[in-house]
Amino acid sequence: MHKNKGLFLIISSGILWGASGTSAQALLHNTHLSTYWLTGIRLLCAGSLLLAYYFLRTRQNIFAIWKDKNMARQLVLFAFFGMFPAQFTYFMAVNYGDAATATILQFLGPIFILLFLIFRWHRRPTRLDVVCVFFALLGTFLLVTKGHVSQLTLAPAAVFWGVMAGVSQASYTLLPDQLLKKFKAELVCGWAMILGGLPFIPLLVTSTPPSFTGRDWGQLAYIIIFGTAVAFLFYLSSLHYLKPTTTSMLSAFEPLTATILSILLLGTVFSWIQVIGGVLIIGVTFLQGWYAQKVMQMKE
């Protein structure tokens, strides 16, 4: 029963995140909205919603986390080296490319984690490590070139920001996890989002409000409420019922959703070569998750 709840939460979070990428693409491409404005309003509003939800549910002081200097320092690090760059680089990749490709390139994160651990701890890469890096690089090559060595089918800026989104996603797992052990996830993420949104406040205050249609405002509301606040809550809640290896594999519903919606609603075109490239990149996550789960079962 608990496992089924965990599966529902992680799959739902992936679908919500994927759909938010498609909504962001529609806003950025159709209204010429600033990526900075969208990132800032998303972080500040979603963070406020999470803190309000935490207070209404627990009736506890939302400022308690700041009374512990060590926890406060880790929160600031999480906000500016995890939350802020992950959200900003992803929207930049969507702005210069499309939601589907940006979300797939974001799945390069596990490879950067792997390379970091290899160089940080000076350990020799295993055969599986080599296979994962090879497939990830091959998948990226096919995705951005359609197999043609001499040309890019994506704007260089889209490739750059997509890869940076993967690096930023990797930073989540490299930060200390004491925060989530001591405080509720919604409190940590709420404050991290608000801190990450602070650099955008001068722009939000001085810029002219966008000329949105009712549909545009609806897409923005979806991105903030369901694509950010609810998606984060679902994902973090799933960790109470599922192993991290399982959640990492099932998070593939995010690029799957973004790709399907981009094709159906926004007219994004993918060649078979690009589809193969995307499958290879996402497959690396499944391969690493399967191996980690196997190792854990052997230890048990």
Q: What is the element layout, followed by pairings?
A:
Blueprint: H1 2-31, H2 35-58, H3 69-96, H4 99-106, H5 109-120, H6 127-145, H7 156-174, H8 178-182, H9 185-197, H10 201-206, H11 214-238, H12 244-250, H13 253-266, H14 272-299
Helix pairs in contact: 1-11, 1-13, 2-3, 2-9, 2-11, 3-4, 3-7, 3-9, 4-7, 4-13, 5-7, 6-14, 9-11, 12-14
Task: Give a quick precis of the structure.
With 300 residues, the chain is an all-alpha fold.
Report on the architecture of this protein.
- The chain has 300 residues and is mostly helical.
- The chain has one domain (2-299).
- 79% of the residues lie in helices and 0% in strands.
- It is built from 14 helices and no strands.
- The two termini are 22 Å apart.
- The mean pLDDT is 84.
What is the number of domains?
Answer: 1
Instruction: Give the terminus-to-terminus CA distance.
Output: 22 Å
Give the uncertain stretches in residue-range form: none
The percent of residues in helical segments reads over 70%
Q: Kindly state the mean pLDDT as a whole number? A: 84
**Biggest sheet, in brief?**
none
Q: How many individual helices?
A: 14
**Beta-strand percent range:** under 5%
SSE order in H/E notation? HHHHHHHHHHHHHH
Global shape: globular
By DSSP, the count of extended strands is: 0
Q: Radius of gyration from the CA trace? A: 19 Å
Structural class: mainly alpha
